[in-house]
Design a protein that fits this description.
There is one protein chain. It contains 21 helices and 4 strands. It has a two-stranded antiparallel ribbon. Strands 3-4 form a two-stranded antiparallel ribbon. It is mainly alpha-helical and 511 residues long. Helix 3 runs parallel beside helix 10. The longest helix is centred in the last third of the chain and has 33 residues. The protein has 2 domains: 111 residues, no CATH class; 365 residues, no CATH class.
Amino acid sequence: MMKEKNIFLISITVGATLVLSLILAFVFKDAKAALWGLLFIPAIVVSFRSPRLGLLALLIYLPLGNTLAFSLVKVYKVVGNMIKFNGSYPLFKLAKDAFYFPALAGILYKNSSWGDLRPKIKHLTIAVGFLALSSLLTFFIVNLLQGRGGFSVGFIGLKTILGYLPLILCGYYLIQKIEDVWIVNRLLITLVVICCGLTLIQYVLLSQGICPDNEVLNKTKALVDLSRTKFYPSIIDKVTLKAQCFVGGSLLYNPAKNLIRLSGTFSDPWQWGWFLISSSFITYGGSFSESRRGWRVLGWVAMAGVLICAIISGQRIALLLVPLIYIVLLVITETRRNLLGIKLALIALLGISLATGVGAVQNSIASLIDRWNYSPPLQFMLGQLHWVTNRLSLFGNGLGVATSGARQFAGEEGTRLIETYYVKLLYEIGIVGFIAFMSVVTVITILTFKAYRSIKDPALRLWGLCLWVFILFISYNPYYYPLAVEPVSVYYWLFAGILLKLPELEEETQS
Protein backbone atom coordinates (compact mmCIF):
# COMPACT_ATOMS: atom_id res chain seq x y z
CA MET A 1 0.00 0.00 0.00
CA MET A 2 2.80 2.41 0.96
CA LYS A 3 4.69 1.54 -2.23
CA GLU A 4 1.61 2.26 -4.35
CA LYS A 5 1.09 5.56 -2.50
CA ASN A 6 4.69 6.60 -3.17
CA ILE A 7 4.41 5.68 -6.86
CA PHE A 8 1.22 7.74 -7.12
CA LEU A 9 2.88 10.72 -5.42
CA ILE A 10 5.91 10.52 -7.71
CA SER A 11 3.66 10.31 -10.77
CA ILE A 12 1.65 13.35 -9.68
CA THR A 13 4.86 15.28 -8.93
CA VAL A 14 6.39 14.47 -12.32
CA GLY A 15 3.18 15.34 -14.15
CA ALA A 16 2.70 18.63 -12.28
CA THR A 17 6.37 19.53 -12.83
CA LEU A 18 6.15 19.02 -16.59
CA VAL A 19 2.89 20.97 -16.86
CA LEU A 20 4.24 23.87 -14.77
CA SER A 21 7.46 24.00 -16.81
CA LEU A 22 5.53 24.18 -20.08
CA ILE A 23 3.23 26.90 -18.72
CA LEU A 24 6.14 28.98 -17.42
CA ALA A 25 8.05 28.63 -20.69
CA PHE A 26 4.96 29.83 -22.59
CA VAL A 27 4.06 32.69 -20.21
CA PHE A 28 7.60 34.06 -19.75
CA LYS A 29 8.82 33.08 -23.22
CA ASP A 30 12.02 31.97 -21.57
CA ALA A 31 13.48 28.46 -21.43
CA LYS A 32 15.12 29.37 -18.12
CA ALA A 33 11.68 29.74 -16.59
CA ALA A 34 10.99 26.14 -17.62
CA LEU A 35 14.20 25.08 -15.85
CA TRP A 36 12.98 26.82 -12.70
CA GLY A 37 9.68 24.94 -13.03
CA LEU A 38 11.51 21.62 -13.16
CA LEU A 39 12.97 22.31 -9.71
CA PHE A 40 10.03 24.10 -8.08
CA ILE A 41 7.43 21.31 -7.66
CA PRO A 42 9.93 18.64 -6.46
CA ALA A 43 11.35 21.15 -3.94
CA ILE A 44 7.84 21.84 -2.60
CA VAL A 45 6.98 18.16 -2.29
CA VAL A 46 10.25 17.18 -0.59
CA SER A 47 10.15 20.16 1.78
CA PHE A 48 6.57 19.48 2.82
CA ARG A 49 7.12 15.75 3.36
CA SER A 50 10.47 16.26 5.10
CA PRO A 51 10.61 19.77 6.63
CA ARG A 52 14.08 19.26 8.12
CA LEU A 53 15.47 18.40 4.70
CA GLY A 54 13.71 21.45 3.26
CA LEU A 55 15.20 23.76 5.90
CA LEU A 56 18.70 22.36 5.36
CA ALA A 57 18.20 22.88 1.61
CA LEU A 58 17.20 26.48 2.36
CA LEU A 59 20.45 27.03 4.28
CA ILE A 60 22.40 25.63 1.31
CA TYR A 61 20.49 27.66 -1.26
CA LEU A 62 20.84 31.01 0.53
CA PRO A 63 24.57 31.60 -0.14
CA LEU A 64 24.64 29.78 -3.51
CA GLY A 65 21.30 30.69 -5.11
CA ASN A 66 22.54 33.95 -6.64
CA THR A 67 25.48 32.16 -8.22
CA LEU A 68 23.01 29.70 -9.73
CA ALA A 69 20.89 32.55 -11.13
CA PHE A 70 23.61 34.90 -12.37
CA SER A 71 26.63 32.71 -13.08
CA LEU A 72 25.13 29.41 -14.24
CA VAL A 73 21.64 30.18 -15.57
CA LYS A 74 22.44 33.78 -16.63
CA VAL A 75 19.04 35.38 -15.98
CA TYR A 76 20.19 38.63 -17.60
CA LYS A 77 21.83 39.97 -20.73
CA VAL A 78 24.17 42.89 -21.29
CA VAL A 79 23.01 45.71 -23.57
CA GLY A 80 25.94 48.07 -23.91
CA ASN A 81 26.65 49.01 -20.32
CA MET A 82 23.04 48.40 -19.33
CA ILE A 83 21.58 45.22 -17.86
CA LYS A 84 18.32 43.69 -19.02
CA PHE A 85 16.86 40.92 -16.87
CA ASN A 86 15.14 37.92 -18.43
CA GLY A 87 11.51 37.18 -17.71
CA SER A 88 12.55 34.34 -15.41
CA TYR A 89 14.55 36.62 -13.08
CA PRO A 90 11.71 37.17 -10.52
CA LEU A 91 11.18 33.41 -10.34
CA PHE A 92 14.76 32.78 -9.25
CA LYS A 93 14.42 35.54 -6.65
CA LEU A 94 11.52 33.56 -5.15
CA ALA A 95 13.12 30.12 -5.45
CA LYS A 96 14.08 29.94 -1.77
CA ASP A 97 10.41 30.10 -0.83
CA ALA A 98 9.95 26.67 -2.45
CA PHE A 99 11.95 25.30 0.49
CA TYR A 100 10.79 27.61 3.28
CA PHE A 101 7.00 27.84 3.01
CA PRO A 102 6.34 24.13 2.28
CA ALA A 103 8.63 23.18 5.17
CA LEU A 104 6.71 25.56 7.44
CA ALA A 105 3.41 24.10 6.23
CA GLY A 106 4.70 20.58 6.86
CA ILE A 107 5.73 21.50 10.41
CA LEU A 108 2.35 23.03 11.20
CA TYR A 109 0.45 20.14 9.60
CA LYS A 110 2.35 17.12 10.89
CA ASN A 111 4.23 18.18 14.00
CA SER A 112 3.50 19.31 17.55
CA SER A 113 6.37 21.83 17.67
CA TRP A 114 4.04 24.83 17.74
CA GLY A 115 2.18 23.40 20.73
CA ASP A 116 5.50 22.89 22.54
CA LEU A 117 6.89 26.32 21.65
CA ARG A 118 3.80 28.46 22.26
CA PRO A 119 3.89 28.39 26.10
CA LYS A 120 7.52 29.56 26.02
CA ILE A 121 6.86 32.60 23.86
CA LYS A 122 3.63 34.07 25.23
CA HIS A 123 5.03 37.60 25.34
CA LEU A 124 6.55 37.22 21.89
CA THR A 125 3.20 36.10 20.49
CA ILE A 126 1.61 39.29 21.81
CA ALA A 127 4.40 41.45 20.35
CA VAL A 128 4.17 39.70 16.96
CA GLY A 129 0.39 40.17 16.96
CA PHE A 130 0.88 43.88 17.63
CA LEU A 131 3.40 44.10 14.76
CA ALA A 132 1.14 42.15 12.38
CA LEU A 133 -1.84 44.37 13.20
CA SER A 134 0.10 47.63 12.75
CA SER A 135 1.66 46.39 9.49
CA LEU A 136 -1.71 45.38 8.08
CA LEU A 137 -3.15 48.77 9.02
CA THR A 138 -0.31 50.44 7.09
CA PHE A 139 -0.91 48.09 4.16
CA PHE A 140 -4.63 48.81 3.91
CA ILE A 141 -4.73 52.47 4.99
CA VAL A 142 -1.55 53.79 3.37
CA ASN A 143 -0.61 51.41 0.54
CA LEU A 144 -4.12 50.69 -0.75
CA LEU A 145 -6.41 53.53 0.31
CA GLN A 146 -3.85 56.32 -0.10
CA GLY A 147 -2.21 54.64 -3.10
CA ARG A 148 1.36 54.87 -1.79
CA GLY A 149 3.24 52.06 -3.47
CA GLY A 150 0.19 50.02 -4.30
CA PHE A 151 -0.54 46.37 -3.67
CA SER A 152 2.64 44.79 -5.11
CA VAL A 153 5.04 47.11 -3.30
CA GLY A 154 3.03 46.80 -0.08
CA PHE A 155 2.97 43.02 -0.32
CA ILE A 156 6.77 42.87 -0.74
CA GLY A 157 7.17 45.19 2.25
CA LEU A 158 4.76 43.07 4.31
CA LYS A 159 6.65 39.90 3.40
CA THR A 160 9.98 41.54 4.27
CA ILE A 161 8.81 42.47 7.79
CA LEU A 162 6.64 39.46 8.67
CA GLY A 163 7.54 36.76 6.16
CA TYR A 164 10.47 35.21 8.00
CA LEU A 165 9.11 35.47 11.55
CA PRO A 166 7.79 31.86 11.42
CA LEU A 167 11.38 30.71 11.02
CA ILE A 168 11.49 30.84 14.82
CA LEU A 169 9.18 27.82 14.78
CA CYS A 170 11.27 26.25 11.99
CA GLY A 171 14.47 26.64 14.00
CA TYR A 172 12.77 25.16 17.07
CA TYR A 173 11.66 22.16 14.98
CA LEU A 174 14.97 21.74 13.13
CA ILE A 175 16.89 20.71 16.26
CA GLN A 176 15.34 17.45 17.47
CA LYS A 177 18.40 16.18 19.36
CA ILE A 178 21.83 17.43 20.36
CA GLU A 179 23.43 15.81 17.30
CA ASP A 180 21.29 18.05 15.08
CA VAL A 181 23.04 21.11 16.54
CA TRP A 182 26.36 19.89 15.20
CA ILE A 183 24.84 18.91 11.86
CA VAL A 184 23.62 22.49 11.37
CA ASN A 185 26.89 23.88 12.70
CA ARG A 186 29.00 21.78 10.33
CA LEU A 187 26.77 22.56 7.36
CA LEU A 188 27.09 26.31 7.98
CA ILE A 189 30.87 26.11 8.40
CA THR A 190 31.20 24.05 5.21
CA LEU A 191 29.14 26.61 3.29
CA VAL A 192 31.34 29.44 4.59
CA VAL A 193 34.48 27.60 3.44
CA ILE A 194 32.97 26.96 -0.01
CA CYS A 195 31.77 30.56 -0.46
CA CYS A 196 35.05 32.09 0.72
CA GLY A 197 37.03 29.68 -1.47
CA LEU A 198 34.98 30.61 -4.54
CA THR A 199 35.42 34.30 -3.76
CA LEU A 200 39.19 33.91 -3.49
CA ILE A 201 39.13 32.35 -6.98
CA GLN A 202 36.99 35.28 -8.16
CA TYR A 203 39.59 37.69 -6.77
CA VAL A 204 42.46 35.86 -8.49
CA LEU A 205 40.62 35.84 -11.84
CA LEU A 206 40.09 39.59 -11.57
CA SER A 207 43.57 40.47 -10.31
CA GLN A 208 45.22 38.37 -13.06
CA GLY A 209 43.13 39.96 -15.80
CA ILE A 210 41.30 36.75 -16.72
CA CYS A 211 38.05 38.56 -15.90
CA PRO A 212 38.18 42.10 -17.38
CA ASP A 213 38.06 45.08 -15.04
CA ASN A 214 35.57 47.95 -15.24
CA GLU A 215 37.93 50.14 -17.29
CA VAL A 216 38.07 47.50 -20.02
CA LEU A 217 34.36 46.73 -19.83
CA ASN A 218 33.33 50.38 -19.96
CA LYS A 219 33.49 50.51 -23.75
CA THR A 220 33.26 46.86 -24.66
CA LYS A 221 30.83 46.27 -27.50
CA ALA A 222 27.88 44.12 -26.43
CA LEU A 223 24.69 43.66 -28.47
CA VAL A 224 24.49 47.33 -29.47
CA ASP A 225 26.80 49.54 -31.50
CA LEU A 226 29.11 51.84 -29.55
CA SER A 227 27.63 54.83 -31.41
CA ARG A 228 24.38 54.38 -29.50
CA THR A 229 25.77 56.17 -26.47
CA LYS A 230 22.56 56.07 -24.45
CA PHE A 231 23.38 52.42 -23.76
CA TYR A 232 26.79 53.35 -22.41
CA PRO A 233 26.63 55.21 -19.10
CA SER A 234 30.05 55.05 -17.45
CA ILE A 235 30.68 51.99 -15.26
CA ILE A 236 34.30 52.85 -14.45
CA ASP A 237 33.48 53.33 -10.76
CA LYS A 238 30.13 51.54 -10.47
CA VAL A 239 29.07 48.08 -9.38
CA THR A 240 27.60 46.30 -12.40
CA LEU A 241 26.48 42.86 -13.56
CA LYS A 242 28.53 43.40 -16.71
CA ALA A 243 31.61 42.79 -14.54
CA GLN A 244 30.21 39.45 -13.25
CA CYS A 245 33.10 37.04 -12.76
CA PHE A 246 32.96 33.30 -12.02
CA VAL A 247 30.40 33.41 -9.18
CA GLY A 248 27.79 35.78 -7.79
CA GLY A 249 26.48 38.88 -9.54
CA SER A 250 27.34 42.59 -9.66
CA LEU A 251 30.82 43.76 -8.74
CA LEU A 252 33.35 46.54 -9.25
CA TYR A 253 37.04 46.04 -10.02
CA ASN A 254 39.17 48.94 -11.18
CA PRO A 255 42.77 48.63 -9.94
CA ALA A 256 43.77 51.86 -11.73
CA LYS A 257 41.51 53.77 -9.33
CA ASN A 258 42.08 51.37 -6.42
CA LEU A 259 38.40 50.35 -6.45
CA ILE A 260 37.13 46.89 -5.59
CA ARG A 261 33.72 45.67 -4.46
CA LEU A 262 33.40 41.90 -4.73
CA SER A 263 30.01 40.20 -4.62
CA GLY A 264 31.32 36.78 -3.61
CA THR A 265 28.62 34.21 -4.27
CA PHE A 266 25.81 36.76 -3.76
CA SER A 267 24.06 39.16 -6.09
CA ASP A 268 25.58 42.36 -4.69
CA PRO A 269 28.66 43.37 -2.68
CA TRP A 270 26.67 44.69 0.30
CA GLN A 271 24.84 41.34 0.56
CA TRP A 272 28.20 39.53 0.53
CA GLY A 273 29.50 41.90 3.21
CA TRP A 274 26.68 41.04 5.58
CA PHE A 275 27.16 37.34 4.89
CA LEU A 276 30.76 37.75 6.06
CA ILE A 277 29.62 39.62 9.18
CA SER A 278 27.07 36.94 10.10
CA SER A 279 29.60 34.22 9.29
CA SER A 280 32.04 35.66 11.83
CA PHE A 281 29.60 34.69 14.62
CA ILE A 282 28.91 31.30 13.04
CA THR A 283 32.55 30.34 12.45
CA TYR A 284 33.79 31.44 15.87
CA GLY A 285 31.03 29.59 17.70
CA GLY A 286 31.38 26.53 15.52
CA SER A 287 35.17 26.40 15.76
CA PHE A 288 35.50 26.60 19.52
CA SER A 289 32.52 24.47 20.46
CA GLU A 290 33.28 21.52 18.18
CA SER A 291 34.34 18.27 19.85
CA ARG A 292 35.93 16.71 16.78
CA ARG A 293 39.37 17.91 15.79
CA GLY A 294 38.75 17.76 12.04
CA TRP A 295 35.73 20.02 12.27
CA ARG A 296 37.57 22.41 14.60
CA VAL A 297 40.33 22.72 12.02
CA LEU A 298 37.77 23.34 9.26
CA GLY A 299 36.18 25.97 11.51
CA TRP A 300 39.53 27.74 11.86
CA VAL A 301 39.91 27.59 8.07
CA ALA A 302 36.46 29.17 7.78
CA MET A 303 37.44 31.94 10.22
CA ALA A 304 40.57 32.65 8.21
CA GLY A 305 38.52 32.67 5.00
CA VAL A 306 36.03 35.16 6.42
CA LEU A 307 38.82 37.44 7.62
CA ILE A 308 40.71 37.29 4.29
CA CYS A 309 37.53 37.92 2.29
CA ALA A 310 36.67 40.87 4.54
CA ILE A 311 40.06 42.34 3.61
CA ILE A 312 40.05 41.72 -0.15
CA SER A 313 36.35 42.22 -0.94
CA GLY A 314 36.34 45.99 -0.49
CA GLN A 315 33.41 45.90 1.92
CA ARG A 316 34.32 48.54 4.47
CA ILE A 317 31.71 47.56 7.04
CA ALA A 318 32.87 43.93 6.91
CA LEU A 319 36.51 45.01 7.22
CA LEU A 320 35.60 47.03 10.31
CA LEU A 321 33.23 44.58 12.00
CA VAL A 322 34.62 41.09 11.28
CA PRO A 323 37.90 41.53 13.24
CA LEU A 324 36.04 43.44 15.95
CA ILE A 325 33.45 40.66 16.31
CA TYR A 326 36.17 38.01 16.63
CA ILE A 327 37.91 40.05 19.34
CA VAL A 328 34.67 40.67 21.26
CA LEU A 329 33.76 36.98 21.11
CA LEU A 330 37.24 36.04 22.29
CA VAL A 331 36.94 38.37 25.27
CA ILE A 332 33.50 37.14 26.38
CA THR A 333 34.13 33.42 25.80
CA GLU A 334 37.70 33.03 27.08
CA THR A 335 37.45 31.38 30.49
CA ARG A 336 41.21 31.36 31.13
CA ARG A 337 41.66 35.03 31.95
CA ASN A 338 45.43 34.64 32.42
CA LEU A 339 45.71 33.76 28.70
CA LEU A 340 43.34 36.45 27.45
CA GLY A 341 45.94 39.24 27.59
CA ILE A 342 48.47 37.09 25.72
CA LYS A 343 45.98 36.22 22.99
CA LEU A 344 44.91 39.84 22.56
CA ALA A 345 48.55 40.93 22.36
CA LEU A 346 49.25 38.33 19.68
CA ILE A 347 46.17 39.45 17.74
CA ALA A 348 47.33 43.07 17.98
CA LEU A 349 50.82 42.17 16.73
CA LEU A 350 49.37 40.15 13.87
CA GLY A 351 47.01 42.99 12.96
CA ILE A 352 49.82 45.56 12.96
CA SER A 353 52.01 43.27 10.85
CA LEU A 354 49.26 42.78 8.29
CA ALA A 355 48.35 46.46 8.21
CA THR A 356 51.92 47.57 7.60
CA GLY A 357 53.21 44.73 5.45
CA VAL A 358 50.43 43.61 3.14
CA GLY A 359 49.35 45.92 0.32
CA ALA A 360 45.77 44.65 0.12
CA VAL A 361 45.29 45.28 3.83
CA GLN A 362 46.79 48.76 3.60
CA ASN A 363 44.55 49.65 0.66
CA SER A 364 41.45 48.35 2.42
CA ILE A 365 42.23 50.25 5.62
CA ALA A 366 42.97 53.42 3.64
CA SER A 367 39.64 53.07 1.83
CA LEU A 368 37.86 52.56 5.16
CA ILE A 369 39.49 55.66 6.67
CA ASP A 370 38.70 57.78 3.60
CA ARG A 371 35.07 56.70 3.66
CA TRP A 372 34.83 57.27 7.42
CA ASN A 373 36.24 60.78 7.05
CA TYR A 374 34.00 61.54 4.06
CA SER A 375 30.83 60.35 5.83
CA PRO A 376 31.26 59.56 9.54
CA PRO A 377 28.73 56.82 10.43
CA LEU A 378 27.31 58.62 13.48
CA GLN A 379 26.87 61.83 11.53
CA PHE A 380 25.31 59.90 8.65
CA MET A 381 22.82 58.10 10.92
CA LEU A 382 21.86 61.33 12.71
CA GLY A 383 21.38 62.99 9.33
CA GLN A 384 18.98 60.29 8.18
CA LEU A 385 17.14 60.42 11.51
CA HIS A 386 16.75 64.19 11.14
CA TRP A 387 15.48 63.67 7.59
CA VAL A 388 12.75 61.27 8.69
CA THR A 389 11.52 63.42 11.60
CA ASN A 390 9.81 65.72 9.10
CA ARG A 391 8.06 62.74 7.51
CA LEU A 392 6.80 60.92 10.59
CA SER A 393 3.25 59.65 10.88
CA LEU A 394 1.43 57.06 12.95
CA PHE A 395 1.28 54.40 10.21
CA GLY A 396 4.11 55.50 7.93
CA ASN A 397 4.39 56.19 4.21
CA GLY A 398 3.65 52.68 3.02
CA LEU A 399 5.09 49.20 3.28
CA GLY A 400 7.85 48.50 0.77
CA VAL A 401 8.38 52.11 -0.32
CA ALA A 402 11.94 51.99 1.05
CA THR A 403 12.56 48.28 0.35
CA SER A 404 15.08 47.46 -2.40
CA GLY A 405 13.27 44.22 -3.29
CA ALA A 406 10.18 46.23 -4.29
CA ARG A 407 11.97 48.29 -6.94
CA GLN A 408 11.08 45.86 -9.71
CA PHE A 409 7.42 46.76 -9.08
CA ALA A 410 7.78 50.49 -8.32
CA GLY A 411 10.95 51.37 -10.23
CA GLU A 412 13.92 53.36 -8.94
CA GLU A 413 11.83 56.52 -8.63
CA GLY A 414 9.02 54.74 -6.79
CA THR A 415 11.17 53.64 -3.85
CA ARG A 416 13.58 55.52 -1.61
CA LEU A 417 17.06 54.35 -0.71
CA ILE A 418 17.32 54.59 3.09
CA GLU A 419 20.50 53.06 4.48
CA THR A 420 19.72 52.98 8.20
CA TYR A 421 17.25 50.40 9.43
CA TYR A 422 15.44 52.34 12.15
CA VAL A 423 14.84 55.24 9.76
CA LYS A 424 13.60 52.80 7.13
CA LEU A 425 11.10 51.34 9.62
CA LEU A 426 9.92 54.76 10.77
CA TYR A 427 9.45 55.87 7.17
CA GLU A 428 7.61 52.74 6.02
CA ILE A 429 5.44 51.68 8.97
CA GLY A 430 5.43 54.81 11.12
CA ILE A 431 5.69 55.33 14.86
CA VAL A 432 3.21 52.57 15.78
CA GLY A 433 4.89 49.98 13.54
CA PHE A 434 8.36 50.96 14.75
CA ILE A 435 7.37 50.50 18.41
CA ALA A 436 5.80 47.14 17.52
CA PHE A 437 8.90 45.94 15.67
CA MET A 438 11.28 47.00 18.43
CA SER A 439 9.02 45.20 20.92
CA VAL A 440 9.39 41.98 18.90
CA VAL A 441 13.19 42.08 18.69
CA THR A 442 13.50 43.10 22.35
CA VAL A 443 11.36 40.17 23.51
CA ILE A 444 13.37 37.81 21.27
CA THR A 445 16.64 39.14 22.69
CA ILE A 446 15.43 38.61 26.27
CA LEU A 447 13.98 35.13 25.65
CA THR A 448 17.07 33.87 23.84
CA PHE A 449 19.33 35.33 26.54
CA LYS A 450 17.43 33.40 29.20
CA ALA A 451 17.65 30.27 27.06
CA TYR A 452 21.42 30.65 26.58
CA ARG A 453 21.98 31.31 30.31
CA SER A 454 20.17 28.12 31.27
CA ILE A 455 22.53 25.90 29.22
CA LYS A 456 25.03 24.01 31.35
CA ASP A 457 27.11 22.09 28.78
CA PRO A 458 30.26 24.23 28.08
CA ALA A 459 30.45 23.56 24.32
CA LEU A 460 26.73 24.07 23.78
CA ARG A 461 26.80 27.16 26.00
CA LEU A 462 29.63 28.73 23.99
CA TRP A 463 27.82 28.03 20.71
CA GLY A 464 24.61 29.46 22.13
CA LEU A 465 26.41 32.57 23.38
CA CYS A 466 27.77 33.33 19.90
CA LEU A 467 24.29 32.98 18.40
CA TRP A 468 22.83 35.22 21.11
CA VAL A 469 25.44 37.95 20.54
CA PHE A 470 24.54 37.79 16.84
CA ILE A 471 20.85 38.25 17.71
CA LEU A 472 21.68 41.12 20.08
CA PHE A 473 23.83 42.84 17.44
CA ILE A 474 21.25 42.53 14.65
CA SER A 475 18.32 43.48 16.92
CA TYR A 476 19.80 46.88 17.74
CA ASN A 477 21.96 47.53 14.71
CA PRO A 478 21.12 51.08 13.59
CA TYR A 479 23.22 51.07 10.41
CA TYR A 480 22.09 49.72 7.05
CA TYR A 481 19.20 47.18 7.04
CA PRO A 482 20.51 43.61 7.50
CA LEU A 483 17.13 42.30 8.68
CA ALA A 484 15.81 43.09 5.21
CA VAL A 485 18.77 41.38 3.48
CA GLU A 486 19.44 37.68 3.00
CA PRO A 487 20.94 35.66 4.56
CA VAL A 488 20.80 37.71 7.79
CA SER A 489 17.00 37.98 7.50
CA VAL A 490 16.83 34.17 7.61
CA TYR A 491 19.63 33.45 10.10
CA TYR A 492 18.23 35.86 12.71
CA TRP A 493 14.83 34.22 13.13
CA LEU A 494 16.08 30.66 12.59
CA PHE A 495 18.84 31.03 15.20
CA ALA A 496 16.31 32.45 17.67
CA GLY A 497 14.22 29.28 17.33
CA ILE A 498 17.28 27.06 17.70
CA LEU A 499 18.37 28.90 20.87
CA LEU A 500 14.94 28.48 22.42
CA LYS A 501 15.18 24.72 21.86
CA LEU A 502 18.66 24.15 23.32
CA PRO A 503 17.75 24.12 27.06
CA GLU A 504 14.97 21.63 26.40
CA LEU A 505 17.34 19.30 24.54
CA GLU A 506 19.91 19.48 27.32
CA GLU A 507 17.27 18.54 29.89
CA GLU A 508 16.14 15.59 27.78
CA THR A 509 19.75 14.42 27.40
CA GLN A 510 20.42 14.60 31.15
CA SER A 511 17.20 12.90 32.21
